Amino acid sequence: MPDRFTEYNVVPYFPICNECKHHFSGDKCLAFLKGIPREILNGDHDHHKPFAGDNGIQFEPKEY
Hints:
This protein has two helices and two strands. The protein is low in regular secondary structure.
């Protein structure tokens, strides 16, 4: 069964990711170049804390 995000090629709005200085496009960031894990995107994991595969990079607010 297709993933509900990729089925329609839709990238939902994720406030925590969009406010992170490591985020650069859709579901991509320096921590997860192949795509931010669902657990972070849906809010099940707070990425202020380490997550397997994040290469030691966690959420840091953008500097405006």
